[in-house]
Design brief:
mainly alpha; rod-shaped
């Protein structure tokens, strides 16, 4: 129905997409670690809050503020870690989306007489035959 080169491009995009999404367990694990770290930070903030009351002499206001500044730095570091971890994943997914759009444009340009649904079904069938569904 459509040229083989288009099928091959669709197969390549689908394989890369599956490879990328198969790594989601890794990313979920890393995100869970960051989430757990943030949970620990919240607990530390609660301890500082409890210790900073005027009747409690454990912490002076100055030391409480110092501890909070340290904690805020840790939160910022955790956010940067999460961002650095997810940026490559987001970039890869965006790249694949652009490749898919370009492939669609090329197919429609070459096979302008074939209905959109027929093109989609044809590519789906090919991906199924390639065990990439």
């Amino acid at each position: 129905m459509i040229d083989e080169i288009f099928y091959q491009s669709a197969i390549k995009i689908r394989r890369q997409y599956l490879k990328t999404t198969n790594n989601m367990t890794f990313y979920q694990s890393k995100a869970k670690t960051v989430s757990d770290n943030l949970g620990d930070i919240i607990k530390r903030i609660d301890v500082i809050k409890e210790s900073a009351y005027p009747e409690n002499s454990e912490f002076s206001t100055e030391s409480a503020v110092g501890e909070l500044v340290k904690i805020l730095k840790e939160v910022e570091d955790e956010a940067k870690r999460l961002e650095e971890m997810l940026d490559p994943l987001n970039s890869e997914i965006e790249k694949l989306a652009l490749e898919e759009q370009e492939l669609w444009r090329n197919i429609k340009e070459k096979h302008y007489n074939i209905d959109d649904e027929d093109i989609i079904n044809s590519v789906k069938e090919r991906l199924i035959r390639e065990n990439l569904s």
